Fold this protein.
Amino acid sequence: MNPKELIETLNAQIEDTFSLLELWFSKDIRLRKFRSGDEEMTIDLILEHISLANRYLLILIRKGTKKALRKASRADLEKELKDYRLSSQGLEQIGINNSFIWKSPKHMIPSGERSLSEIRRELAKQQGLLLENLSLLKNGEGVLHKTSMSVNSLGRLDVYQYIYFLLKHARRHLQQMEQIENEYNSRR
């Protein structure tokens, strides 16, 4: 895959995913506070969870970006990108709600104490940070540094794959929010 195509693909997915997240902030408050069961999260809590997960993933993405850029001067990017694949079956499963069992770490569990406007601002900032990191890796440098990912036994992911993981995680929860909306509408 060539770097331009890779960056364009990820840029488009960032824009699309965050645009879809943004739509949920203007939904009716009764829908956003609805719980389909005692143990289920509300849409507001899911949005908070996404922002928390993004925060920690972005820490790893920023560190990975710096390390990849340091390695770039002594790397053969053309060789590294020759048979490159952004996705895998395991990464694709991240974007499908209920495709595997995973317990979120405590620091990613929403408290419900943050305001919706604060969460909205944080997601917008996170979108900007993703685009910024991607622009720094415009020549394919993101393939040069890998970090372990335990979720769904993914193993080591490069910086582009970490960005893709973040987007797939958000997509998973977009599906979850759609399911909540369908359940809410069926009970009305």
In short: The helical segments are 3-23, 29-32, 43-72, 77-81, 89-94, 116-136, 159-186. The chain has a mean pLDDT of 94. The chain is about 60% helix and 5% strand.
